[in-house]
Amino acid sequence: MESASEMLPFPLLQTPIESNYRACTIPYRFPSDNPKRPTPTELAWIDLFRNSIPSFKKRAESDPTVPDAPDRAEKFAERYGAILEDLKKDPESHGGPPDCILLCRIREQILRELGFRDIFKKVKDEENAKAISLFSDVVNLNDAIEDKGKRLESLVRGIFAGNIFDLGSAQLAEVFSKDGMSFLASCQNLLPRPWVIDDLDTFKLKWSKKSWKKAIIFVDNSGADIILGILPFARELLRRGTQVVLAANDLPSINDVTYPELIEIISKLKDENGMLMGVDASNLLIANSGNDLPVIDLAQVSQELAFLAADADLVIMEGMGRGIETNLYAQFKCDSLKIAMVKHPEVAQFLGGRLYDCVFKYSDVLG
């Protein structure tokens, strides 16, 4: 169900929101551009979304919850493709000019109008089950690292490796449909440092000197991302005395983990005493962010999350959609971390990096 409550600005954003905050990172156009003609950047991103249509159509065709799924999937592909063509001719059509939020929103609206609620449900369930079975092994490998700095780097690499599981990327969706990916192999095969944005050494130094009282983590994908990447990192924060709030989507979008799914995952990983592999998980909270897209506009989050975030001193935006395509340059009143893998060539080009490069952007506000 969609959240009925009023949405609020994320309280840790630097104010005023109206002048300082712009969700989308990459400028698709500038004020001097002709409003009736698409820019090269707009055309490139429209093509990127067009290239994802076959993988979305394939998932929709096999959705067992939707009557006449193949016919409706064909309608989705036709309708979304036609709207993208319209935007190429007139950027101001369909609520434009386009940016990553609008292009995602239109895609999700068409799917929902045609009766598709969660076309990636089957693959999410499969990947969650696989990742849950590997959780203890990943945690034990990290716990065996005595040096705190090296353990932190191992946990960070785990977040990057888990973040590869992204079915919103046409290239990665193709790889997963063939043979899946090995989490540990992904950890070992990350591009070498320095990454395109690499503040890990600064974060290590801060990690060694202070503990945050409360961290808000905007989580991304199901499967290895949340279970083998974020949760071992969150567990380490809990062990250090930090209260951790995991903010997950209200509604399904691509293979992003949702609020109800995350509650179920945590319940399966905790033991009967509420422990997460030996660590007290009573300070691990799950919040509904109010979001329904793979990107996020922090000008509108749920009342629940706004309340929980008010006294946090660390914000983590995880994943390419939340931490790079939106919010890479978002400024917060507290320490912040943007951590994600670059999975679109267009994003790599914008950042001046490589495909599958890593972004680890840390901002220290509190000193």
TrEMBL record:
<dbReference type="GO" id="GO:0016787">
    <property type="term" value="F:hydrolase activity"/>
</dbReference>
<dbReference type="Pfam" id="PF01937">
    <property type="entry name" value="ARMT1-like_dom"/>
</dbReference>
<dbReference type="InterPro" id="IPR016949">
    <property type="entry name" value="At2g17340"/>
</dbReference>
<feature type="domain" description="Damage-control phosphatase ARMT1-like metal-binding">
    <location>
        <begin position="50"/>
        <end position="359"/>
    </location>
</feature>
<dbReference type="GO" id="GO:0046872">
    <property type="term" value="F:metal ion binding"/>
</dbReference>
<dbReference type="InterPro" id="IPR035073">
    <property type="entry name" value="At2g17340_3_helix_bundle"/>
</dbReference>
<keyword id="KW-0533">Nickel</keyword>
<keyword id="KW-0479">Metal-binding</keyword>
<dbReference type="InterPro" id="IPR004567">
    <property type="entry name" value="Type_II_PanK"/>
</dbReference>
<keyword id="KW-0464">Manganese</keyword>
<dbReference type="InterPro" id="IPR036075">
    <property type="entry name" value="ARMT-1-like_metal-bd_sf"/>
</dbReference>
<protein>
    <recommendedName>
        <fullName>Damage-control phosphatase ARMT1-like metal-binding domain-containing protein</fullName>
    </recommendedName>
</protein>
<keyword id="KW-0378">Hydrolase</keyword>
<dbReference type="InterPro" id="IPR002791">
    <property type="entry name" value="ARMT1-like_metal-bd"/>
</dbReference>
